[in-house]
Amino acid sequence: MNLSNSKTSAQLSDKVAASLAKQIINFQTLFSAGLNRWFNAYTIRQKKQIAIAIGLLISIILISSSFCSFYTIPKLSQNYTSAHIGQASDFPNPRFIKRQLTDSLTKKK
Q1: Residue 78 counted as domain residue
Q2: What is the pTM of this model?
Q3: What is the pLDDT along the chain (109 residues), one digit of tens a residue?
Q4: What's the total number of domains in the chain?
Q5: What CA–CA distance (Å, rounded) separates 106 from 109?
Q6: CB of 52 within 8 A of CB of 74?
Q7: Which end of the chain lies in a sparser environment, N or C, as judged by fewer CB atoms within 10 Å?
Q8: Cα dihedral value 6, 11, 12, 14, nearest 10
Q9: If you ran DSSP here, which 8-state letter would residue 27 be given?
């Protein structure tokens, strides 16, 4: 199969996308049907208790996440310099301690 042909590549991509979409929809249908059968097996009082428990759990998680962090964001060092993509238009000046990050797009002529 030649994937360089755009028409056959587009048709193949459409078939793969349709197949994946069908599998996702089937999984969602089966999951929701199972969850519906499980939830409908309880009485109305038990359903209320489950809903309250889920609500309390979610609120506890949200409140606790505002006071403590579940993940840390690494801090950038003070000598961080932004990167330019592309080849430098000239060599850095030796009297500067920090690197000059200039390229042909940002350098004024």
Answers
A1: no
A2: 0.43
A3: 444 567 778 888 899 999 999 999 999 999 999 999 998 999 999 999 999 999 999 999 888 877 776 666 666 555 655 555 665 556 666 666 555 555 555 555 5
A4: 1
A5: 9
A6: no
A7: C
A8: 120
A9: H
